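Section 5.1 Outputs to date
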Amino acid sequence: MSPGQLIRSSGLACIVGGVCIAAFVLIHPWDQLVGSEIARTARWRTAHTLHFVGALFALLGLLGLYARQHDRLGTLGVTGFIVSFIGNAMFLGTGMITAFIW
């Protein structure tokens, strides 16, 4: 895969990730956060699967953003990328736990 294809693919991954995360926020049963029964509903599973998929695609998209900008980042930019990558990876882990383990 050429660098140009990687960058275009990562842009698409960012779009898909953003749409899935937005759908997660819209679908999630925010009015029923108490009790274990909510995690057994189809709405919960759908929302948290979107959470997981969205975070996964956003994480892949971040790699393409880094590939595109790595020449011009500097110390602060690299630090920002690392913090963003770690935070998104933790968000991905939370989505996996809430979608598939609970």
